[in-house]
Amino acid sequence: MLSLPSPSSEEAGYSGLYSRTVTETEIVEVSRDLFASGHHSLAVQEAFKAVEKLVQSRASAHSQSGTALMETVFSANRPRLYWSERRSQSQKDEQRGYMHLYAGSMLGIRNPVTHEFGWVDEGETALELILFAQHLLRKAKVASVATAGVSIEKDQSAERD
Predict the structure, then answer these.
(1) Of 95, 93, 150, residue with least CA distance to 158
(2) Residues 113 and 31 sit within 8 Å (Cβ to Cβ)
(3) Residue 1 CB partners (closer than 8 Å, separation 6+)
(4) What is the pLDDT, as a whole number, of residue 12?
(5) pTM of this prediction?
């Protein structure tokens, strides 16, 4: 536990909300103490790093990071992590949409919070972003992992032949 001053009463309220809503171990372990002590930018940064590490691990893509990692791993055409067979338009849209959410979170949240001091300085905003990171982490946890060199499209085209 960090030895830092106690948060204000408003921040303490957000800390209680954090405790009730942020439950994924990977996120809690890296962000709870930072969030509780008012280090909101660092808490958000660590939460999104946890998402990135989980995606790297599940997809065996340790040589990539950030936006490029997410665009490759959740590719609409040959994803390494996916949630459906991508046969219907809705299934294709889900894959493509989440690819953009993951890539966008790296570009629009993780990068600024990593490179700018105090990018997130409010407990409410930090909690919203951490909960978004938690959603992405959970979604990546339940994704199926593609077998190396095999894509669903190949499997589908083999079924048609």
Answers:
(1) 150
(2) no
(3) 33
(4) 64
(5) 0.84
